[in-house]
From TrEMBL:
UniProt key word Manganese: no
Pfam families: OMP_b-brl_2
Species of the source: Labilibaculum manganireducens
Record domain Outer membrane protein beta-barrel: where: 18-170
SUPFAM superfamilies, per the entry: OMPA-like
Gene3D superfamilies named in the record: 2.40.160.20
Leader sequence segment: 1-19
Coiled coil: none
Protein known as: Outer membrane protein beta-barrel domain-containing protein
Keywords: Signal
């Protein structure tokens, strides 16, 4: 964990030294998460995400944005009268490029890789829960893309989709080819 925080600090300091303008902020919103894969047929699970970001403007049209986000993910399924929920928590670190779209000062496209650090997981069936931490891999790699719309100089709204590139389950425990699939909608405030 200390290495990840150190990496985040190095990226933040390194990019800010070459930049014209640096903004910091907080963000949060709604996750609609699922586990995508050939062996799965679950439904999206609604939960929250929140965290902070640092945006370094290279030009008027292009910026680098790194974030540190706590994200509650997983999936759910209602089958044969049973309510099944897979709940998992990640610390996500998106590394994004943010580019102005269509010549406007308000609409931006964002895209880039995301590193996910698994924090905890549990499987719940009809109120009974079981720890699922050992079945999960420690790290997840995803790709994010989406849109941000600046309401004013301080507030913006965002819609983003991140799809997993690596499997989330440890093959020694669960032989399912599952990857994270998360749609996010939220709001950000910059300082």
């Amino acid at each position: 964990m200390k290495k990840i925080v150190l990496l985040f600090a190095i990226i933040a300091i390194g990019t800010s030294s070459f930049a014209q303008d640096v903004k910091y902020g907080i963000k949060g919103g709604l996750n609609l998460a699922n586990c995508a894969g050939d062996d799965l047929k679950g439904d999206s699970r609604a939960d929250i995400y929140f965290g902070g970001f640092m945006r370094t403007n290279f030009t008027e049209c292009l910026a680098f944005q790194t974030e540190l986000i706590y994200s509650r993910q997983g999936s759910k399924e209602d089958s044969e009268g049973s309510n099944l929920q897979f709940k998992t928590n990640f610390l996500n670190i998106p590394l994004l490029l943010r580019a102005k779209m269509f010549g406007t000062d308000k609409l931006f496209a964002v895209a880039g890789p995301q590193i996910g650090i698994h924090l905890s997981s549990e499987f719940e069936e009809d109120g009974e829960t079981a720890d699922y931490d050992k079945a999960m891999r420690d790290f997840d790699l995803s790709f994010d893309f989406g849109l941000e719309f600046d309401l004013n100089k301080q507030f913006s709204i965002e819609a983003r989709y991140n799809f997993g590139i690596t499997k989330i389950f440890n093959d020694d425990y669960v032989e399912i080819d599952a990857k994270n699939s998360v749609f996010q909608i939220g709001i950000a405030a910059s300082f």
